[in-house]
Amino acid sequence: MVMCLFIASVPAGISAHTVLIEAESFEQLGGWVLDQQVMDTMGSPYLLAHGMGSPVADAVTTVALPGRGDYRVWVRTRNWTATWDAPGAPGRFQVLVDGKALDPDFGAEGAEWHWQDGGIIQITGSTVTLALHDLTGFEGRCDAVLFAAGPGFVPPNDPKGCADFRRRALGLSKRPEKAGVFDLVVVGGGMAGTCAAVTAARLGLWTALVQDRPVLGGNNSSEVRVHLNGQINLPPYPALGDVVTEFDTGKKGNAQPPSNYGDDQKLAVARAEEHLRLFLNMHVNQVDKKGHRITAVVAVDTRTGRAYRFAAPLFADCTGDGTVGFLAGADYRTGREGRGDTGESLAPPTPDNMTLGSSVQWYSVETDAPVPFPECPWALPFTLETCQATTRGDWDWEVGMRQDQIADIEQIRDHAFRAIYGNWAFLKNYHPEKERYAKRALGWVAYIAGKRESRRLLGDVILRQQDIEERREYPDACVTTTWSIDLHYPNPENSKQFAGQEFRAVCDQRPIEPYAIPYRCLYSRNVSNLFMAGRNISVTHVALGTVRVMRTGGMMGEVVGMAAAVCKHHDTSPRGVYKRHLEELKQFMRRGAGP
After folding, report:
1. Which terminus has fewer CB within 10 Å in the chain: N or C?
2. Structural domain boundaries of the chain?
3. Whose CA is closest to 421, among 102, 58, 91?
4. What whole-number distance in Å separates Cα of residue 491 and Cα of residue 497?
């Protein structure tokens, strides 16, 4: 396939011979991986050279150019460690045109995403082979490559101008294509969203499951590798959890080999449902509304950039970040409420912005011969006193608790990279007992951050610590939570050693008796047709500590799927289910949605 991307409607001052190639659209990604985590802040997915210190295979594509002659090449990239004024540029890569490298190395300058000038090259044919050639294996990143024939043309870098330029350069319509009209659109394919979609489909609803990654399961996928926690099949509705079981491999342990997390198993269950359509690699970034109701969501294909519109009378936000609710203007909270506001003994005296952090887990593997690891002067510096003498990183390699888990997620994840690589370099090269690590190599480092908390969408009930510990009874009690009130904080010793750049966490776990949370936590109080399930439901920060584990979230999804069926049958809203049809929902919960 020859890639030929021209300006569809040429803005003033831009040559018609300008050609934009989005990195994520390359025909062969080689060893580069697609990262969509910061689409909403920097405007696009990008390719990441995630080689854990070994250069990855080239990403390659073929580009058709409109004519021979001189072209200036621009590459959108950044030096990811410049944020910390760290020495060196670990994310360096070359751009090869017909096998010849452009003069500069890319990813070596600028802390922010920007267009780096690659100089002028002469094109003598109608097509060229374009390749991204990684030089380090340390997280080089490329958003796009631009061939510009116009003299003096500089591509725009401001968010609005860049977005408009992309759309025109790729010939994308302002109007999204129709993906279909459904009974229910579920956004987010973690355990909560997948269980919601499968349950609704089994109850006869034509359901769309829109997921922005190539796999299902969220934190329980091979991309993040957290095992499932929380108990299922408990009173008052022992059938809740039957769908969760179908996605559960039964294997315990975090940061284990990918087969433990059953990516294929999850996809097979979802694809077996006649009434369910699965849309992978589709990122929702727009909501259409009429009054207090969502009429459609718009998702962008992360490989092609094409936009699709999903219409329905009902929507479920299972994104974790509360993305659909946020775009729809739903009420939400972030951070920790103050004790004076909620009366919770575990809340801080005054509200703040601290959240539970994101884990970037990793492990090493034993090899037959010594394996070198390069120096990492740009990473966090370690000493014998500060190094972590371990061969794997579990949940407690946790970062970003003092940062915005949405706006700052690239920096949060990258800080974890600096900690992991810096620590491993010290163990391999400087530790007094470095022979213990000589034959070990990094086997896996997550590049998708495993988030615990960001936005919490508000429902008709906001669950608090007192409700759980005092076992307050609600008439709409549904999903039973069993996990402790598990709150995470920066590890004090790690914070002291790294002056606020901590990367390790501690947890404070307060056991609870099994407690059934109310259904009214599972829909928005001000967006009338929006459900939610997972870690973005209507709870305080403290109460999130018990409901956020994934088997519990999966049961929330089952209840949302059942409530959606009641909504369809009676042409009512999520709130209307509680007010007028609660007994029917209870009948569904007693029956369950197992196969």
Report:
1. N
2. 19-169, 177-338+461-483+506-591, 358-445
3. 91
4. 10
* Topology given in CATH for the domain delimited by 19-169: Jelly Rolls (2.60.120)
- Tell me, rounded to whole angstroms, the distance of Cα 291 from its chain centroid: 29
The answer to whether 86 and 379 have CB atoms below 8 angstroms apart is yes
For the beta carbon of residue 451, count every other beta carbon within 10 angstroms. Answer: 25
pLDDT band, very low/low/confident/very high, at 15 (cuts 50, 70, 90): very low
Domain formed by 177-338+461-483+506-591, architecture:
3-Layer(bba) Sandwich (3.50)
Residues 134 and 58: beta-carbon distance below 8 Å? yes
List beta partners, residue 19.
6, 147
What distance in Å separates the CA atoms of residue 103 and residue 83, rounded to the nearest whole number? 25
110-142 pLDDT per residue, tens: 999 999 999 999 999 999 999 999 999 999 999
Amino acid letter for position 533 = A
Instruction: Give the whole-angstrom CA distance, residue 203 versus residue 186.
Output: 15
Residue position matching structure tokens 């999966």: 554
CA distances from 297 to 186, 289, 310, 375, 562 (A): 10, 9, 5, 46, 21
> In this predicted model, what pLDDT tens digit does every residue of 472-502 receive, in sequence order?
999 999 999 999 999 999 999 999 999 889 9
